[in-house]
Write a structure and sequence with these properties.
By secondary structure, this protein is mainly α. It is built from 15 helices and no strands.
């Protein structure tokens, strides 16, 4: 298995596909913010800025290292491995949650007669097979998938324009401030915060100088724009129904009067949602493997594929009984747990990195003086 090396375009396309996978839990924000959901990506982006800055500074201070190498360089081998283990568990949960959401989506909307266990096995098995080929091979696909996905979304926006009711978004910013604070927290911690997985690819870019910072900025900027447009379309088409839907993005597409000749567009949109969700599972799965490979000092992660895949499959089947349980978790517990991993751990790592730098500085200056 060759060492992973990504071009700037590959890194950005992988990140964009990963972020578009959050489309299956758009109800987390719509259910809280209601008609103002389309503004929440902007608020969440502002709340996410400190995390973005910390991540970029960490990568610049430790060039050539990924998230797990940075942990050890900043915190030492023991505490660094502990942090890497926490990230491994975090990515495992993300992969399982997204697997569960994808399985329920397929079982309830596309293949209602198919056992959910079969859907799970196919989903996780596909990810395992892809990862046996190495991420270099997988990284060639996202650009095509991304262009196709953007084309599908653009087409649906155009054909649904005549059915949009702009009265559905009025009045703007008329809710209590706590609603925007809560929904912004959900957006920054879940939809945007999970982009911390991009640090797994830090040090793997062929463009060394500021390659990660520029690529990460493009990924976050695109995500904010994409989510704003998605929530706006949901509100304009569904109105207040968007607040009560478990899949507002998909329900908005079903509300569009395509006509007999365009009835397959709903299926195309479903396929797009599934593909982006698969990328989200795939990247999170890869993050778990890389973390364990680093902790256990393994040269390759192939021996970990089946055990980790089995964990993701079993946890994904058991974690929630229905989308309603997932919605409750995503709007109450998850934002706080996610914030602890995405906001607090990187900040502690940065403090450790700065303290180590301060300790080394006197020694370095002493060496120069002796010379």
């Amino acid at each position: 298995m060759k060492e992973l090396k990504l071009t700037q375009g590959q890194f950005i396309s992988v990140g964009m596909c990963y972020m578009m996978g959050s489309i299956l839990h758009s109800a987390f924000v719509s259910g809280v913010a209601g008609r103002d959901a389309w503004l929440i990506p902007l608020f969440g982006g502002l709340m996410f800025l400190p995390v973005f800055a910390v991540c970029v500074i960490l990568v610049k201070r430790h060039p050539g290292k990924d998230l797990f190498g940075i942990n050890e360089a900043a915190l030492g081998p023991v505490l660094g491995r502990v942090f890497s283990l926490v990230y491994a568990l975090f990515f495992l949960v993300i992969a399982s949650l997204n697997s569960s959401e994808l399985e329920h989506f397929v079982a309830e909307n596309l293949l209602p007669e198919t056992p959910i266990v079969f859907i799970t096995v196919v989903t996780v098995g596909t990810c395992c097979y892809g990862l046996t080929k190495g991420f270099n091979t997988i990284a060639r696909l996202p650009m095509v998938v991304l262009i196709t996905g953007i084309a599908v979304l653009s087409f649906e926006l155009i054909i649904s324009a005549s059915q949009m009711d702009f009265g559905n978004i009025l009045p703007v910013l008329a809710r209590e401030p706590v609603v925007y604070l809560r929904s912004g927290h959900i957006m920054s911690a879940i939809s945007l915060g999970e982009s911390i997985a991009m640090l797994v690819f830090a040090g793997k870019l062929r463009q060394k100088k500021n390659g990660f910072a520029k690529g990460y900025a493009v990924i976050i900027g695109y995500s904010i724009l994409y989510l704003s447009i998605t929530y706006l379309r949901e509100t304009l088409l569904l109105g207040r129904l968007a607040e009560y839907s478990m899949l507002p993005s998909f329900d908005a597409v079903r509300m569009i009067n395509f006509g007999a000749s365009l009835s397959s567009t709903e299926s195309i949109y479903s396929l797009m949602m599934m593909t982006f969700s698969m990328f989200r599972i795939l990247v999170s799965f890869y993050g778990v493997l890389q973390a364990l490979k680093h902790i256990l000092r393994l040269e390759k992660y192939k021996s970990l594929l089946l055990p980790v895949g089995a964990l993701i499959a079993v946890y994904g089947l058991k974690i929630f009984d229905s989308p309603t349980d997932s919605f409750y978790f995503g709007t109450t517990t998850a934002p706080f747990v996610w914030a602890a991993v995405e906001f607090v751990l990187p900040l502690i790592t940065l403090i450790g990195s700065l303290l180590r730098g301060f300790r080394k500085s006197p020694a370095a200056s002493g060496s120069v003086a002796e010379a």
